Amino acid sequence: MITPMASQEFTTAQEHAAQIHSIRTQYEELAELAGSLAHEIKNPLSVIHMNIDLLSEDLSEIDSPISRRSVDRVDIVRQQCERMEGLLRDFLRYARLRDIDLVSGNLNDQIETVLRAYQAQADSEGIDIEKYLDPDLPSIMMHSDSLQAALMNLVKNALEAMEDGGQLWARTYPTRTGVALDLIDTGRGVDDNTVLHMFEPFYSTKESGSGLGLPTARKIIEAHGGRISVQSDVGRGTKFVLEFPTPKRLGRSSG
């Protein structure tokens, strides 16, 4: 027999579930609308950018003080167009990230690919990349392209934090529930307030940053069933820890 109190609790739980479903539906609709709006803005912005380039070419053929001043102003407009295009590109990537198809793969392969892509830049900037990758690392379920995009963002940020050279360590190892990757740099580090907000959309300490790189990286990692955490000390460096679950049905790979 269901008591009146139990019935009331059940009704309250149903109402709460309905509210959560309604909020989630509204959020998804808003995200879809925002993505569509960004796409619609991107098209005319591309036209503006193209015509600014043509205008700059026309002005460059006129040798006068007025045309030279105009070229400078056109360059400012072009730079802002490029900044807005980059912002829209990052936003669309963030807004469109939904459920992704995962297949078995090795985390070592992903970080190796990303580090190779940035090796030349690191060498030119006096940055040593040290790798400590467990050769017996268990496989995880992953989407290679999106995971590499997340890793590239983290490595790029690490290199940019070391203007005067430094070291970047990449270490993989098994955990109790899966595998983990540590990315540690000896860069300038950030304060506690920045750590608190760095995964919030549009929060950025960079003048030209969109503020969507780290939020997108976190969203990708969470879509893999993983999580990301960060520790940082101003003047000493930053450490990101990425953790991914290992399905029990998957055996250990040979790396």
From TrEMBL:
Q: Does the keyword ATP-binding apply?
A: yes
What SMART domains does the record tag this protein with?
HATPase_c, HisKA
Q: Which Gene Ontology terms cover its molecular function?
A: ATP binding; phosphorelay sensor kinase activity
Q: Which CDD domains does this UniProt record tie to the protein? A: HATPase, HisKA
Gene3D superfamilies registered for this protein in UniProt: 1.10.287.130, Histidine kinase-like ATPase, C-terminal domain
The chemistry this enzyme catalyses reads: ATP + protein L-histidine = ADP + protein N-phospho-L-histidine
Give the Enzyme Commission number: 2.7.13.3
Q: Origin, by domain of life? A: Bacteria
Domain annotation Histidine kinase: ranges: 36-248
InterPro entries hit by this protein: HATPase_C_sf, HATPase_dom, His_kinase_dom, HisK_dim/P_dom, HisK_dim/P_sf, Sig_transdc_His_kin-like_C
UniProt entry tagged with the keyword Transferase = yes
Arranged from A to Z, the UniProt key words for this protein are: ATP-binding, Kinase, Nucleotide-binding, Phosphoprotein, Transferase, Two-component regulatory system
Q: What is this protein called?
A: histidine kinase
Source organism (scientific name)? Novipirellula galeiformis
